[in-house]
Prior knowledge:
Residues 681-887 form the DNA-directed DNA polymerase family A palm domain. It catalyses: DNA(n) + a 2'-deoxyribonucleoside 5'-triphosphate = DNA(n+1) + diphosphate. Helix content is 49%, strand content 11%. The chain contains 36 helices and 22 strands. It has a six-stranded mixed β-sheet with strand order 3-2-1-4-5-6. Strand 18 (809-811) and strand 19 form a beta hairpin.
Amino acid sequence: MHxxxxxxSGFIFRAFxxxxxxxxxxxxxxxxxxxxxNMVARFLxxxxxxxxxxxxxxxxxTFRNEMYDQYKAQRPDPPPELIPQFALVREATAAFGIPxxxxxxxxxxxxxxxxxCKVAAGGxxxxxxxxxxxxMQLIRPGIDMLDPIKQKPIGEDEVxxxxxxxxxxxxEVQALMGDSVDNVPGVPGIGPKIASTLVLEYGxxxxxxxxxxxxxxxxxxxxxxxxxxxxxxxxxLVILRHDAPLPLPIEQLAFTAPDSIRLGTWLxxxxxxxxxxxLSIEALSPAPRPRPxxxxxxxxxxxxxxxxxxxxxxxxDYDTVTDLTVLAGWVAEARAAGxxxxxxxxxxxxxxxxxxxxxSLATKPGRACxxxxxHEGDLxxxxxxxxxxxxxxxxxxxxxxxxxxLKIFQNAKFDILVLERAARGIITGPITPxxxxxxxxxxxxxxxxxxxxxxxxxxxxxxxxxxxxQATGTGRNRIPFARVxxxxxxxxxxxxxxxxxxxWHILHPQLRTNQSLSLYEQMERPLIRVLxxxxxxxxxxxxxxxxxxxxxFAARMAVMETDIHAMAGRSFNLGSPKQLGEILFDEMKLxxxxxxxxxxxxxxxxxLQALAEQGSDLPARILEWRQLAKLKSTYAxxxxxxxxxxxxxxxxxxxxxxxxxxxxxxxxxxxxxxxxRTEEGGRIRRAFVAAPGHVLVSxxxxxxxxxxxxxxxxIPALREAFAEGQDIHARTASEVFNVxxxxxxxxxxxxxxxxxxxxIYGISAFGLAxxxxxxxxxxxxxxxxxxxxxxxxxxxxxxxxxxxxxxxxVLTPFGRRCWVQGIADKNPARxxxxxxxxxxxPLQGGAADIIKRAMVRLPAIMNRDGIQARxxxxxxxxxxxxxxxxEADALAAMVRTVMEGAATLSVPLVVETxxxxxxxxxx
Length: 923
């Protein structure tokens, strides 16, 4: 007997990374399926044994996770292009007539070990088709391995070359060195060379620990002693279980030639004509239209018969699903496809309060359905049958949590919060894996255009979807979505899912082309779950303090209004732009006024700021009044109404795809606009408080954009100052104004500080003059002196502007494309604004990238360390946590370490932490 066992799960990943991207006719990625199918075809020709099977992993969780809950815990989700291919590889195995074997709770490697050892013990031979290092412990007389990509045998010599020991000692070496890929701990500081030396000297792990008393004192000996339990656990984790149950008897694995009709039909459906020709069988399905083949690496199989996705199916004929059996059929269809688009319809915009009125699914372009749950009818338009939410979620649960099916959303964070709230108690795990077409677009085109579904559909599909207004009406005639008739609701909602799926097929391949794939997969997509968790957590506010603050702001505004009326010479409505324009430009005759299309004078913030910078007091006072009025309405008044009645906390919503630089924004409430250095801003922060028994912990990057400027512009003096921990503003003042740092007067330092931060944002001489209460001429002298001392900064700004003019975008230090609108505008004012944006975007965007990297890393580390704290808010360069009082200090230290290590620059990153009962106290 010669049993051939193909490590199906291992080969999928190798084939995926070895071959270029390619798609089936419906847009489904198939490069791994093509590689697998081609390998099987070649293998049947060259290496067939008497018995054959393909072994797969049934899921991530196995008995090893019960032994060690962190086993493989850090492994990322498979790439989204790979997820739908898992099911197709199983289809390929069935088409060839080869038994496929998997067993819940066991890894494929254990099943391979059990089959291989049983065959060898009976005097037969087993060939394992895999290059997985973990399987090398099985090599012995009667068991060999074959690398499926290189088509080279792996024997004892190859094992010794890799591990320094024979196959019988591999588990001892792995126990000592651990495995970062599988999160096997091992002994810190012991790598493969030291591990193999110890095993060769002492025989095995037990021999090593028996010899500990005779070893000379050393760091290695101390590590072995301190981590003995981890080493012994690691050995148990890496040992493959020869006693695993055999799902199919070996006799049922006897090889039979494939059924040519069945295999030919499947190859034709997939478009794998070259493989069919190689096997001398006919690809029986109609040949779809071809596309030019992707460029393949040398030696790879030709891919000219791969196909472009079809997106010309009509946006119509969608199904309304009102029967659980029918819904189960859709779920089965989605699981077989390996991917689907999901969209929810709600009766509100707050995902933590809104009810799900229905949801839609799409399994391929043009194939979508809508599932109504809470629609309301009337006598003229009765709803008829619809599904109970809990029952529908019970049917959907296996799909939503299936790791082998990619769930595609447009604005995934919203839909996930809605679905998980609707399915509370029904699904226990997270909805995973996911993709988000909004973020896929944003990761490669921030600032180039909007990333809403309607705009993306128009831009990339040439299609205008049904609008919400068309479905629900407008103005007085608008009705809640729950009262939209089911035909119209289906047309609208199912189309959303259909459009989302089609967008994914087009936009996702562009991530690799635009060099944005790692940015999306390692930063933007993982952040969805982080932010959803933060939004669900919310933050407590002091309602009494807010009401007190509102009354105080109102009193101060009344005093300011009296002063403004006196300055204007008469009373007028401060909230009326028309009346204000008449005061400023008709009566006071201030220069620079511009009329709008309506004929009224423009009095927006930019117009008032320009007047204030020219020395006019009234516009400056109006700006102060407006700021206080905005703080009152946005925070002091609104926060009280935004308290969730269920949680008694305020839940902001983080917007992930709004800014051109990658920064997050937030609304309801907008936390980004709370003033940082004013008394009012501090008072608002005092209203954000910790729950009883807890404190708030703030962690804030110190001068991160200045540090990035020193890094990207390569300014030696600034880099030296940051490296030595000097006062950067005093150092700048010393360099620019030629004064000693010791004994420097506060005014000189303040001027340098204003220049340092102003330069980042392209401040004008008028703007700096306004800040420092000096003349524009003196301010220009300061700016010129700054650039004369740091010419590298001017060079950097010019180079980024040139980059924006040439490409339309600039890059952050981490590869994010920040598109700059108006960089070639003929209007000097708009062009100048765009140039300032271009200079600042790599700094502001780089800071956004760094804090996002930290946010993605923190939850896993907090979970690993058993920290009970919750991350609540992200505002500019600051993260805010709520922690039990007893763990606040430990949390602050850990967060500081993670944030400071989120990126490696030529200057150190510094994080300042604070702890307090309120945000103001911690900030």
